[in-house]
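Researcher: Going back to the complex we discussed earlier. I've cleaned up the inputs and rechecked each line, so this should be the final set. Can you rerun the prediction on the complete assembly and write out the structure?
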Amino acid sequence: MQCAQIRHTTTAMDDFVWRALAAGLGLAAIAGPLGSFVLWRRMAFFGDALAHSALLGVALGFLLHVDVNLGMVAMCVAFALALTGLLARSRLAPDTLLSISAFTALSAGLVVLSFLDTVRVDLIGYLFGDLLAVSTSDLVWIWGGALVALGGLAALWRPLLATTVHADLAAVEGTRVGHVRLCFVLLLALVVAVAAKIVGALLVTALLIVPAAAARRFARSPEQMAIGAAAIGALSVTGGLVASLLLDTPSGPSIVLTASLLFALSLL
Amino acid sequence: MTTLIEARGLAKSFDTRAVLSDVAIAVAQGEIVTLIGPNGAGKTVLLRILLGLEAADAGTVERKPGLTIGYMPQKIEIDANLPLSVARFVGLAGSYTKPQIAEMLAETGIAARLEAPIQALSGGEFQRALLARALLRQPQLLVLDEPAQGVDVTGQEALYDLLARVVARHGCGVLLVSHDLHLVMARADRVVCLNGHVCCTGKPAALGNDPAFAALFGARGAASVAVYRHNHDHEHAVCADPAHDHRHG
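Model: Rerun complete. Updated structure for the full complex:
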């Protein structure tokens, strides 16, 4: 990124590099376990649709003069609830509905942003991520969001696993399947909103899916896969960040490419 | 005999199509009730209403207070991306120790597959894993939806033998949905034929003579039931109901 490059060459790079690494690792810690569930529940499209709404959250944040991070979280949560309701009622195939919603949300975000001619928005940063631009307050958001989501996921683990394996069976055995699904969707919305800041709205799903898929080969239990995915995510963040600094490539795509490379290696 | 579950006057429609109308069914402790009927007769919907997975449009379902149900759904798919051993899958039924799980898998005959990935099981083995999970809960009522689906012909007989043994040992009531008339009927205490409504109900031996049953399953179905009548010296027409039109399209 241009701005990163200037700082890179002119100032001590320590601060923003460490911030970037801390943000990326915080995200990898939650994206691995949550992404495993996204994989098992086949909700990749759902996560992607949520991410597409993040930009609309940014736009509305600027429009209503509220914190952009808050705008993204609020938007993703609202969009997640709306999508869940629509999916339960609609007769369309889920992937049709999700595609329509995703592109509608993304376009709405872009259109609303175009009305804001007084603010300069780093559109590329929001779409494809800019890890090196993470501020201290972003870091608080990311780690706060990651810790809340990790705690929530840990509390939800057992009923969520039972629901994922077979919802009807879990319901007959006393799991409150509806509650569990709702909590999972809310956690996913929170993490997608927080991650969109780092890897960008268009690449968020990759951070959820690719490390989890790479961990599958080596895992013999759900827990092993979740922890393995977090580890592979951390490796991808670190590798991508280093590559981004050395080669002056954009950070988000570099992280995703590193994860893809690790996935390809896991297949060998 | 204590009634475990009893439904009365159940009705359910999807859009304008009535799937169930005025259906009554009950299962008592230690009783094996088999639900049969053609495809689209509403068997699975009825089970789902009884299990509390779906709401009926009308009617009531009464359960014995504190009733525990073991449920064996139709053959299910588990995502290949989920690393899950057979023991973990069975243990999802609740909080159970490894020895309890191993003991139950031994009872259903797949102790050797304890640590195998659940996706590696054959059709018959998977149904036995499902049965183990249902039994682990010490259920008073077992609800089985097409338990022999995806199981080869020789495996089916073995599976029904196993079901008969564990039901006798655990003394639970059973509600069973099945297509396999000849395998199932011999072991049922009571058979309920469903086709949107309850066409007829009674002891399996008696149903072979029932015109409603013959209308639903044809002469061959009736004949396959008749095989199991040899040790009954009398028959009663269970639902000879001349006022009721039993022609089903």
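Model: Worth noting: Residues 4-10 of chain A have pLDDT under 50 and may be disordered.
Researcher: Good, that matches what I expected from the previous run.
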